[in-house]
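Ligand: 6-O-phosphono-beta-D-glucopyranose. Inputs:
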Amino acid sequence: MTTPTSSGAEGSRPAQTIAYPSPTSRTRHGPPGDPVVVVLFGATGDLARRKLLCGLGHLVGLDFTPEIEVIGTSLEDMDDEEFRTFARESIAAVGARKLSEAQWTAFESCLHYVPTSAGPAALAAKVAESRARLGDDARLLHYLSVPPKAAPKVIDTLRAAALVDRARVIMEKPFGEDLESAVALNAELHETFDESQIFRIDHFLGKEAAQNILAFRFANGLFEPIWNRNFIDHIQIDVPEKLGLDARAAFYEPTGAYKDMVVTHLFQVMAFVAMEPPTALEPRAISEEKNKVFRSLEPVLPGDVVRGQYAGYRREEGVDPESDTETFIALRAHIDNWRWAGVPFYLRTGKRLAEGQRIISIAFKEAPKSMFPAGSGIGTEGPDHLTFDLADESRVSLSFYGKRPGPGMRLDKLSMQFSAVETERTDDILEAYERLILDAMNGDHTLFTTAEGIESLWERSAPLMEDPPTVKPYAPGSWGPNQIHQLIAPHAWRLPFERNWREKR
Ligand code: BG6
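Predicted complex:
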């Protein structure tokens, strides 16, 4: 586990008084840690409205959550009451989780607000009030739900308000906009916070299903021996979204699909699929293995990328009528190490596509087929696949050819499927942000990304970012520009599925 450094990590108290819960010994249902004042920057933004406010509301009152107070802050001028109304209406309208009346009542009294314009002293005073209610042992958790460009200013405010001691800070993605800005942001952060206080969030790693990849690979003897170039033909990480811009033009225009989704979520998930077995389920071991994958990732070349923009994007409110921002991206990545040499990884994501899905599909090499006659059906439905669905149901499917019942030898594509819903523990599922906020409250870095990892990814992204291919138009409701088929040939995209996931009967 990580131990606090003597450099005053997490504040100016003597190091020996800083109690870190052990990430390896604590389970999600362990006893709650010290009370926490959560300071939410960007409290009226899209992420807060959709995920963070309802997530915090859901955590309040769970027996493994510390006692919390939430102080929202943003450019909007509001008081506590107005913020409560805003939070209630946002959760009802767009929140990923709805709160019961009892949950809301418990949460409402924890909510406070101070506008950014009131300055650092007003923020400090508001935090002091919450601390007085929670007790001397209360910690601070600053959630920077702000665009990369706004982050340095928030850090300055925290320093000016003396809100650094006993504080942790969650940094939203994308972390920087390229290698140079990420290095600068890290340097700036380190002037104020020790690395042990910093939590760079990538919410895909908080998804149950992403963690299930680790369980699947490293808790079973069956799969790891075939998890390499000898048995695996190619891998797809496919995250099409039906969603459009949703009034996020100010964020999306300078960001685009590559920085919004690939350099963050898709590459992070790829690392879980591709990494070597870590020595332990603890932050350093996991980060080390993930970072090795990033170091082995070959630079992303423009010729391996298809960029797309949905028809009508340039007419969206807040979008430049000549915008070159990609709302779609598909690419071929290569990991140059012994395990993966020669195995292409195909990544795809985009807005306003035909379906919303989040799948990882591992295509195994085909069997020689020698004993099955032509016409038996062998090989007609592609290779055997192992498919992970990153949705909350955390589904896994293993497809294979099997005999069709009846006379003769006809082969059909069959599958064995699992869904977390079948475990009857559905109520225990924490939404990704909830899980990660709770981990950050408890000082557990296991599922967070590191400066080194992020910097490697920006470095490998440079060829693409310096010379991006022109964006190709695609029709909303399609699967992207036509060029995606050439990119993956001679293989084919798994989506749309020929057969849907089975529902439990
Ligand atoms: C966010 C991106 O990080 O992830 C969004 O900024 C995207 O553009 C979202 O829609 C997808 O996350 P999820 O959990 O809904 O799959």
